[in-house]
């Protein structure tokens, strides 16, 4: 006698006893017989689906899973697949239904086979697949929460190193992973047929150095020279005036801005070349738009940095000349910015 699953209109009492009466081949149960323990789990699953207050799919799923793990009988898979489908564990439901049809073969009547195949087709068109990873090697519990029409509103999984691939029903999902006392959350809207990946990060990452060059990394010509030491026996002269100090600061800032402008100008030029490579004459693909926008933004930043840098450096040189003594006037030209501002601006534009 075969074991129909509970989605059909078969009396529950008959279903509960079917596993005990059904003959089992060696391929279905390597031990040669279905254990009493497996039968008990199956009966418990049936009782949970018969609960007067409503089917308890989450608990029934666990009981049918134990019954199958202990018996390896295809006769359990119909009810296991049904429970998985109600819990929206659609990837598992598809797998269990297909194994049920394959294992049952001709023992499954035509009407039931047609219904199961229809269920599988409907599940496949609405499924989304996610690949979850974690940056730790230990097992990571993952909870998938979603508002469902039936069954529990969350499913639990375990990410055991590498990757965990899940087939879930399309819709809004919140995946929560926990490791080492830390919880990471990923909220995502999934569409039918969509495939996404996500990595949960639990380890602390080193701080990233700021990308903008500080004034101390500006060209050596923009740094303030050390104060001259007076000859032996002569009184020390007064320190630099506030105007000259401000000049050194302005020159340093201007030099740093010029360095930044050169960097962004090179980046803009690279993006411009990428656009030209993708375009054919005046016709460009949609994929070139991002490089075009990026090149345009970088060109604007370049112009601002270079113009501002030249102005600041020039102002600094002027302040140094005005605030210093006669010998400082000869040193001031060394602080002038040598690149021609107009040429640099042209280089950074798009």
Secondary-structure content class: alpha+beta
Q: How many β-strand stretches?
A: 7
Q: Given the C-alpha coordinates, what overall shape results?
A: elongated
Q: Output the strand order for the largest sheet.
A: 3-2-5-6
**Helicity level, as a percent range?**
40-55%
Low-confidence runs of at least 5 consecutive residues: 8-32, 326-350
Radius of gyration using CA atoms only: 37 Å
Report on this structure.
With 350 residues, the protein is an alpha+beta fold. The chain folds into three domains: 12-125, Tetratricopeptide repeat domain (Serine Threonine Protein Phosphatase 5, Tetratricopeptide repeat, Alpha Horseshoe), CATH 1.25.40; 129-200, Sandwich (Immunoglobulin-like); 215-229 and 238-348. 48% of the residues lie in helices and 14% in strands. A hairpin with an 8-residue loop joins strand 2 and strand 3. Helix 1 packs antiparallel against helix 2 (36-49) and helix 3 (57-71) packs antiparallel against helix 4 (77-86). The radius of gyration is 37 Å and the shape is elongated. Residues 8-32 and 326-350 have low confidence and may be disordered.
């Amino acid at each position: 006698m075969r074991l129909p699953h509970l989605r059909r209109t078969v009396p529950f009492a008959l279903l509960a006893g079917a596993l005990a009466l059904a003959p089992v081949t060696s391929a279905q149960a390597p031990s040669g017989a279905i254990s009493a323990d497996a039968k008990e789990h199956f009966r418990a699953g049936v009782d949970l689906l018969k609960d007067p207050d409503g089917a308890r799919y989450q608990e029934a799923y666990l009981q049918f899973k134990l019954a199958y793990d202990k018996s390896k009988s295809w006769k359990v898979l119909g009810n296991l697949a049904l429970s998985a489908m109600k819990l929206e564990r659609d990837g598992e439901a598809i797998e269990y239904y297909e194994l049920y049809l394959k294992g049952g073969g001709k023992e499954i009547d035509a009407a039931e086979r047609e219904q199961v195949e229809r269920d599988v087709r409907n599940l496949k068109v609405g499924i989304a697949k996610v690949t979850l990873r974690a940056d730790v090697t230990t097992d990571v519990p993952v909870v998938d929460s979603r508002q469902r029409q039936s069954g529990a509103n969350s499913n639990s999984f375990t990410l055991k190193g590498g990757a965990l691939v899940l087939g879930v029903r399309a819709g809004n999902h919140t995946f929560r992973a926990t490791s080492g006392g830390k919880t990471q959350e990923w909220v995502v809207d999934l569409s039918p047929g969509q495939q996404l990946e996500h990595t949960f990060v639990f380890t602390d990452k080193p701080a990233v150095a700021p990308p903008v060059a500080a004034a101390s990394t500006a060209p050596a010509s923009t740094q303030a020279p050390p104060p001259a030491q007076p000859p032996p026996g002569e009184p020390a002269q007064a320190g630099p005036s506030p105007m000259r100090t401000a000049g050194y600061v302005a020159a340093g800032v201007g030099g740093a801005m010029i360095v930044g402008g050169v960097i962004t100008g090179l980046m803009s030029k690279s993006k411009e070349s990428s656009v030209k490579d993708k375009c054919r004459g005046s016709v460009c693909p949609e994929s070139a738009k991002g490089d075009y926008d990026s090149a345009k933004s970088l060109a604007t930043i370049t112009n601002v940095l270079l113009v501002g840098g030249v102005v600041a450096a020039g102002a600094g040189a002027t302040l140094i000349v005005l605030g210093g003594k006669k010998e400082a006037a000869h040193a001031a030209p060394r602080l002038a910015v040598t690149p021609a501002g107009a040429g640099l601006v042209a280089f950074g534009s798009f």
